[in-house]
Amino acid sequence: MILPTSVLTCSSRASCSPGATQQFNSQEVKTLETMYKGIPLLSAGRPRRRYRRRRHHDSRHDISAFPDAPNLATIGTDEDGETILYTAKTTDSLSGCTRGVEGTAKAWPSGTTIARNFTNKDFDALQKNIQEAKKQADQGVSDAASAKSAAATAQSTANAVGTAASGAQSTANAAGTAASNAQTAADNAQTAADNAQSAADDAQSAIDEHAADKQNPHGVTAAQVGAAAASHKHGNLTSDGKLGSTANLPVFTGTGGLAQAEAVLSAAAKLGRGYGACSTAAATKAKAVTLRALRSSPARDRGREVLLRQHCDRAHAEHQQHWRKVDLLQAGEAVAADFSRPATSISSSTTARSMSS
What we know:
By secondary structure, the chain is of the alpha+beta class. It is built from 6 helices and 13 strands. The radius of gyration is 46 Å and the shape is elongated. The strands form 5 sheets. The chain has a 4-stranded antiparallel sheet, with no helix packed on it. 44% of the residues lie in helices and 11% in strands. The chain has helices at 120-164, 169-212, 264-270, 280-296, 302-337, 348-356, and strands at residues 23-24, 27-28, 58-59, 71-75, 82-86, 88-89, 93-95, 98-102, 114-115, 233-234, 237-238, 251-253, 259-261. Helix 4 (280-296) packs antiparallel against helix 5 (302-337). The longest helix is centred in the middle third of the chain and has 45 residues, at 120-164.
């Protein structure tokens, strides 16, 4: 936003400039605060070397972007920053600097951002000038009303005097002249009040325009206001709601309750549906070894042999049932992994295992 250099506009019958004073009906107009020109959406410059307090001089990449002197500049980008006033500008430096206009004057490291940002000093000057302009406008309106009232009274008196006695014509004429002068003063005061009101309206419009600017004119970052970055994570969960990149995986809580995706086989084991490390062939072999040991032992009691055979048959049946569960889980895992591809037949390894079972 470009700030106005003055918020007081004078009529053609009186001249003034920023910082000057006038009188309207003996009411003094106070000196306005100095306001410095701004640059819309100025990109911050970065100095090539450390700011040297002793020289009051600063080299930058692009000094031409800064407004002409005198003007303000800011060093740093947060509440610890410093506002300076420079009185001269060349093609590559700002000089005649007054340090610590706002903030604390200190040595800044090389690479610190320097820019023409809207400062608290700008805001204070703008606010005070608007208030003073409003006060002057109100006073001008009051003076105008008083002058108009005085003019009406003087005119009435003049008319009464003229009607009462022609001998008092000179007095009436003098009163008429006084009334005319009062009217002229009233008109001048009204013009000044109108100009002051217009300046106040312009200043208010500038404030409203700046307040309505939603394009981050001060370059505020997410870190400065305590907001999260656009790309961030909550544990294993990304900002767009993803947990890893593989589809159709179950979610478990890990150490400290941290959410994490688990492979289907690992999930089955954690849920008490583990596959184990045995096979139908291994179970059959174990049963055969048990029977051979039984036949070769001294105990050849037929009843004991029947009991052992029944025990081995139950073990074999349990293994078969176990592997049927394994095949179902593996088939479900294959379907989940191929969910996004056209359905085909069950894998050859699964079919072979089902046939062997």
